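JOB MANIFEST
job_type = single_chain_structure
chain_count = 1
residues = 302
[input]
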Amino acid sequence: METSKATGNTNSKEEWYNQDAKEIKRLVGDFLRENLKLELSETKTLISHSRTEAARFLGYDIVVLNNNQKLDRRGHRSINGQIGLKVPPDVVKSKCARFLFHGKPIHRAELIHDSVFSLMAHYQQEFRGIVEYYRLAFNLHQLNRLKWVMERSLTQTLARKLRISVSTIYRRYQTTLQTRNGSYIGLQVTVERGEGQKPLIANWGGISLKRNMKAVLNDSPLQVIGPRAELERRLLANICELCGSQENVQVHHVRALKDLQKEGRTSPPYWVQIMAARQRKTLVVCQKCHMDIHAGRATQKN
């Protein structure tokens, strides 16, 4: 009898919480409709049980943590009831799917005509963008699966391009990468330039999968589209695309082309006009022009 009574109390409490959540959802919907002229999506606005289900938001799974084995220094349970962010399993699966065929890693035929430098930079940039987006997740280590799949795809693509074996790719490009988070075994390709100039270096690996609670979430993660060989050619040309100088050539980046359009700016500077006309988020410039850009000084073509 006592067990039945306890079960009944639990069920009634859960029903009360469910009704309360539905009422809050209704009030939010009314507010959005009446004040902001917005409609609440019934298919996307779901009520989930926090202990057994996850709520999806901006690609993250939001869960309530519950683990009696996690104790603090005083022996008290330390994480129960706290909110946690997870990398959803289906996200890892979908990201891996682009590099798989019948469940096995495969080369990417559309990238074979790129240079080795561009290929490695492309894979690294794509993986880094995904990792940085999910840097807040406590299970970020789940992306190890994606790293393994992408690395196999990268080495197979390089092997297909160079017409050598995957093991030869590892012997040729494998190295130890030194980062601020420690040493990692990865791949590296170096493109030598003229005398007195630093070589171009592209890496694969060396990206930590350690959670960062202070990371800033960018809800427009980097999308790597198209070949990267063009940037390599522009760097190897070693010419500032603003003034024509060949001294200390480097690359200026913007996060998105829309960032070039600033409110209140009547006449965009020359460097903005160049990037907008080319529809490129990179501009090869000398050190002086680069400093002028960041300082807001005028840059003009000689």
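[summary]
The helical segments are 2-35, 89-97, 116-133, 144-162, 166-173, 229-237, 270-278, 287-295.
DSSP finds eight helices and ten strands in the chain.
exit_status = 0
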